[in-house]
Amino acid sequence: MEGDDRLLTPELETGEVPGRSTATSKWAARSLAVAAALLLTALAACGFFDTSHAEVSSTLAEADLASTVMEFDLTGMKTEKCWLNKSFWVEKPGVYQMKGTSKTQQISPAACQLLCASTYKCEHFSYWTDGACLLTSYLAYPQEYTGPDDSGVISGPRVCKEVNNGPTDQFSASALGLPQFRAKQAPGCGSLHDDYKLAWSAEGETFFDGWQFINKSETRGAEWYLNKTEAFHRGVVFASKAGATMRVGEQVQPFKRRSVMLHSAQAWRPDVGFIVVMKYKHVPYGPGVWPAFWLVNSDTSWPKGGELDILEYANDETNKVTFHTDKRCNLNVKKMLQCSEDIKDIDPKMIVSCYTNYSGNELGCLPPQVRKTGEWYSKNPGVLALLWDASGISYFHIPESEIPSDLSANQPRPNTWKSEWRMAFMPFDDASCIGIARPQEIVLNIAICGDWAGNSWWGCEECRATGYVPDYCIPGHVTEPATDCCTIYVSNPSAEQPLKTKAFFDIDYVKVFEPASYDLPAYPAGTYRNGGLFGTDK
């Protein structure tokens, strides 16, 4: 829990309690006493000498006394920085454990924490010096222990945050100092390269191994992004030979639901070119849901390194492919219109300038494209393929029954793909599109309500049909979740079933292909290189 660290005391971090000797660990003393008593019993049972039951009981009693009178002197005991010294959790005044649980005796704080991690809806543990272990839910709040110095308590979250929340591979090259992106024209409406080869994949039981789980959310929504351990434990992510699922989870605290945000640990160069492919069976949709499958550079502050939204929408809105940069880059309108003539059911709306500054209502470039809802994508499973090179960007949807053999063989030849598969085409103007993008990492996440799904609630017919409308709540009141229509809806039990059956990704694989004529090193994503931090200027 992010707020827990404020209660961490210096004593816990150092393992020392001021005013008490740390030469002897009372945990070690108790362990030795118990071990001695058990050894005494075993030897007596074997007939080595006579000893009374009372003597053994006395030894054990002394061991228990050593534990009950001690303050938490943690010398010699493994501690976690997320544990709180002299603090415990309270469900409500006078209630110290969550409903459905009872006080148990555990041998250590770690054992108590492990019990919490394996107990449904437990979010915090409190471990007392007498071995008592109490579990509390997300409704609990921390309270400082002010009792006698000869007693004490340690508490903490169900799982301590991981120091490394992603893969640990060392990359062979730096993504910094690469040549500047310069747009160039490709012949016809295709790619600069004819043949591609597999460079990276996430699939099967190891699907989540190549990703980082990012906890931070910046969309003011109802999502509570989990780390990897927590996400697996809560069933928010799952991987098998058949593929991977990511879903919206249960409520974790008032106005928050569990979810995940994944960033690939590797990044790929758009100036050279790559294809990112996701084969899927289902994508999230429904009231309050804001899923995204996108690319971004995180070596620098947004949008300096570029961002490309592949699949992103909220509520019942349609998807739109957009590109964002801080440079005055324009799309090649003449070529874009010529190459879009064969695209059926195209929405002709366009924004030519890719320069993005939301405060100035400059939203990035939006090409004419086929726009479909999340429900449509879920009813039409197949492949989403995004081709990006120095000439521009092409977005394809390939029905499952039509996946070409070259893609199935991991040797895609996109210049041979059917024109009806293309849903958007964004050719760059080679005179203005310079320095617009750096190596891109893949992001998959499911946001909830917030700046888009919350603010567009009133314009969503399916959202209004939930009944969460004025005067019951205020649409788009995302800064005040207790009154925001979207947030109140997703926090209500009536949302459980729709979210469970609609708000999830079911993915066979995500793959990245690079030009077959190139032998590129693996570049670390900025988020990975910066230890999970996004957008640090370097």
Short summary of the structure?
The protein has 538 residues and is an alpha+beta fold. Helix content is 18%, strand content 26%. The chain has a domain at 196-516: Jelly Rolls (Sandwich).
Describe the structure.
This protein is α+β, with helices and mostly antiparallel strands. It has a domain of 321 residues: Jelly Rolls (Sandwich), CATH 2.60.120. The protein is 18% helix and 26% strand. It contains 13 helices and 27 strands. The strands form 6 sheets. Strands 8, 11, 12, 16, 22, 23, 24 and 26 form an 8-stranded antiparallel sheet that branches. Strand 22 and strand 23 form a beta hairpin. Helix 2 runs antiparallel to helix 3. The protein is elongated.
**Unreliably modeled segments:** 1-38, 47-78, 162-172
Terminal Cα span: 29 Å
Radius of gyration computed on alpha carbons: 28 Å
Q: At the first level of CATH, what is the class of the domain at 196-516?
A: Mainly Beta
Beta strand count: 27
Roughly what percent helix? 10-25%
Q: Treating each run of at least 4 consecutive H or I residues as one helix, how many helices? A: 13
**Coarse structural class:** alpha+beta
Average pLDDT over all residues:
83
CATH architecture of the domain at 196-516: Sandwich
CATH fold group of the domain at 196-516: Jelly Rolls
Keywords:
538 residues, alpha+beta, Jelly Rolls, seven-stranded antiparallel β-sheet, 18% helix, 13 helices
